[in-house]
Amino acid sequence: MIGFVVAFLGMEAVSYAMHRWVMHGVGWGWHRSHHEPRTGRFEKNDRFPIVFASVAVVLFATGRWGPALGVTAYGALYATVHDVYIHRRVRSVRLPSTRYLRWLREAHADHHRSEGEPYGMLLPLVRDRSSARSARARL
To answer: Domain locations in the chain?
Structure first.
């Protein structure tokens, strides 16, 4: 149980770091597609969840069930919030509009407008105000 909780909670920090330094760094070639209008059902950015799922696969394969389930649960929640609620990629599914979900949608919209902070998903706090200001200044 502790492995599940630690992995689930730790994934927000991993998500932040991967989004900021990989997706907006060396992985921009794939992630750029997420910041542009989609031309089909999928975008190059959709490759990232497949790559990230490999972590859970390795954890499952090595018998680390608690962390594997924590990583998987975070990924499922991330996909639900990001793809279903925020970007409405599954139009047949509607989530309730709560204050928390509206906050997540607005924070994500800020990120798309500035390409800077916030990089987190389930707790999208602005951690580096200079990054947010410099990203907005580029617009």
So the answer is: 2-137
- Under 8 Å between Cβ of 121 and 101: no
**Cβ distance 69 to 57 under 8 Å?**
no
Alpha helices in the chain, H assignment, sequence order: 2-17, 28-31, 47-61, 65-79, 99-114, 129-137
Instruction: Report how far residue 30's alpha carbon sits from residue 19's, in angstroms, rounded to the nearest whole number.
Output: 12
HSE, CB side, 13 Å, CA atoms: give it for residue 26: 3
pTM score:
0.84
Tokens (6 digits) for 104: 């997540």
pLDDT digits (tens, 9 = 90+) for 48-105: 999 999 999 999 999 999 999 999 999 999 999 999 999 999 989 988 989 999 999 9
